[in-house]
Amino acid sequence: MDREVAIIGGSMTKFGQRDAWIRELLAQAGEACLTDAGVEPDAVDHVYVSNMASGEFEGQTGIMNAVAHDLGLLPAYSQRIDQTSSSGGAGMYAAWQSIKSGASDMTLLVGGEKMTHKGTGGATDIIASITHPAEYKHGVTLPSFAGMTARHYLEKFDAPRDSLAKVAVKNHENGTRNPKAQFQKTITEEKALESPTIADPLRLYDFCPITDGSSALMFCPVEVAEQYTDDYAVVSGVGGATDTHVVHERDDPTTMGGVVDSGEEAYEMAGIGPDDIDVAELHDMFTILEFLQMEGLDFADQGEAWKHAEEGRTAIDGDRPINTSGGLKSKGHPLGASGVAQGYEIYEQLVGEAGERQVDAETGLACNVGGFGNCVITTIMEGR
Amino acid sequence: MSMDAIRCPNGHVKYPTHPRCPECGEEPVETIDLSDRTGEVVTWTESTATPPGVREPNVLAFVEFEVDGAPVRALGQVADNADVETGDEVEPVYAEELREPGVGLKPADADQEWDGFQFRPLD
């Protein structure tokens, strides 16, 4: 069966510190997505729930069952998708497969995570549990991998430290235009460069916050989409790839192999290249990752992405805006929700619903990174 | 205790050990102890926000060893949080407890060693 896969609606809850627990967050985004798409619950054949660690965070497992029941989707097939920080992207991949294969004619994808009640130390430890035991015993955290990678990048390519601060400033600026973002304030380069050191040379403003939130998207075949709406997006390319579990085993610390491989797969499927991408959401869990993904996806030559940031080319009024949503940096990073929320931002940009953040875009890309580049999903979407 | 790396028939050396060579999928033919060699700091960080049971601050480094011309890297704590720079030569030194067992998410008796090798800069 050769079907084109459409996205006909989406939603996200307010990201930030929320009173709601995981079931309520997922239900809020799921319900809002049904409403936005104009789809009745009984039309949903499959529901995928992207989430990394509800069991570890709040002792609640089986959340795909909860979502299907709470939203009246029974007896739809339900599945929880965990691919750590790229669970949302992996959910996009699963939802796309379900429609493409003909297994489903209407698939709801909901991603979410409830994290803030664990505090920074507790949340950091849960996230660090993805590492290999040979790494974990040294007390390594994802931020410390970012620190080591950033130092190597700056030394190898003679890039100025300020260029990383420019990523944070840009994404905070974009976040002020996103009412759902965790942070609604601009920051200055000076403030970013003077903030407390977290993993030298990276400082507080190089890191995304810990966040509660949920986001959802509705997938169906193009023929079905046209019964619901005139404006929809098509998933024209998707690729997924896995890199080493042990981060130090990679040949080049400044290359994310999963980004390169998943990007190539997505470009090939879509039949386009990096120059055709008008807008992108990249996984800026740490500022340095925006550069590594720009280079891995061939938006910039290796060692050159920092120049794009310096020249303002990635700003919302630049030649290829990156992270118009505010990115993980400003919008927040509720693990399982983030990849879905990236897809939601691209969807909104392509159907002209991005409000104050709207840019002129026909084709968009989302790159969702799990772990420290351990698992990556790249998705390309086109507006119709 | 040893700091075991594997070597596969194609000459790839990897640390830590794996059932198959991550690079070519071949079964390893040899175990190599890195603990009596010296290596070079590839990059490092001083982490000042550490999880429960981990020293704060925590200086960490990627270190590259060479085994018969093949590079192999390892991550480890820097002993006594000593000052290091990229390119410094370091030696592995055994530490009984790298972080407090059972304080974080993993139980003390999990698939997890708590001792291992830190890196000490050579003068």
Automatic annotation (TrEMBL), chain A:
Residues 239-381 form the Thiolase C-terminal domain. Gene3D superfamilies: 3.40.47.10. The keyword Transferase applies. Residues 5-221 form the Thiolase N-terminal domain. Keywords: Isoprene biosynthesis, Transferase. SUPFAM superfamilies: Thiolase-like (SSF53901). It holds the Pfam family Thiolase_N. GO terms for biological process: isoprenoid biosynthetic process. GO terms for molecular function: acyltransferase activity, transferring groups other than amino-acyl groups. This is Acetyl-CoA C-acetyltransferase. It comes from Halorientalis regularis.
UniProtKB/TrEMBL annotation, chain B:
It comes from the Archaea. Signal peptide: none annotated. Residues 104-123 are annotated as: Disordered. It comes from Halorientalis regularis. Residues 34-93 form the ChsH2 C-terminal OB-fold domain. It holds the Pfam family OB_ChsH2_C. This is ChsH2 C-terminal OB-fold domain-containing protein. InterPro entries: ChsH2_C (IPR002878), NA-bd_OB-fold (IPR012340), Thioester_dehydratase-like (IPR052513).
